[in-house]
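Residues determine shape. We examine one folded chain.
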Amino acid sequence: MSDAATARPRLDAAGACARYEAIRPRLPQARFPAAAVELADLGALADEIDVFVLDGFGVLNIGEAPVPDAPERMAALRARGRRLVVLTNSATQPSRETARKYGKLGMRFAAEEIVSSRDAMAAAMARRSDRLNWGVAATAASELDEIGPGCFALGDDPADYARATGFALLSANDWTPARQALLVAALKDRPRPVLVGNPDLVAPRENGLSLEPGFYAHALWDETGAAPEFHGKPYRDAFAMVAARLPAGTDPKRVAMVGDTLHTDILGGAAQGWRTVLVRAHGLLRALDHHALIRETGIVPDFIVETT
């Protein structure tokens, strides 16, 4: 196989933000405050917010390492009686593995405190009246049987793309340009549903940004003209799953979506009617002028904090 077929494209933070803005018409609409209030960390919001809905990458962790002071901050918020929920677009593994990961990083979350875009996609599959054979972009650790029947991992065999009656993009960890080309060719030959279990374009890692399923899904849309079905932030279904787990009568203005990305966390939280908190120092915007990006995009968080 040629280098061109195996080498992944690259996207830096500025490029990722530009790409998010280019696909803005495909994202939900929301209303935003006129200006953001700047604070040091989430502790400053403990009197104003009852429920903190937390993104993972860039808020709780950077790759496989915890964000500095995040374990202590989570413990302090719990001690104040604040409810914590993780809402993540990390979809490669089941939520119980996400809980295990955060436990190892010193942050303990119960299973009912974690909602992932994977969960939202699985729920959408279960609601369908048809029963498709789903070819899934996944890894060996993805436990596809847990998502639902009829799921199998896509690899480099064109026959797998031909036999699938639907496709799902769950993880980009093992995805390659060659596999993307096979998927594009399969859809051009015979249109089929495409579900996306992680709408993120990129995720912050210790050594830079990884490309995520949303990146490949929008490229697929550009090339085939067929719109995938997205599940996870900033789309409504994942936020609705969190809202369904909150006590009846919870005031949405005392719920805050906390994230590092304007076009997923902040946009999606605002569309849900929650308040929003941008964490600046650890995620996508850490090396960029976030004030300039907020002006350019018009996506304004209620609060900006330097760190979790």
In short: The longest helix spans residues 177-189. The chain has eleven helices and 16 strands.
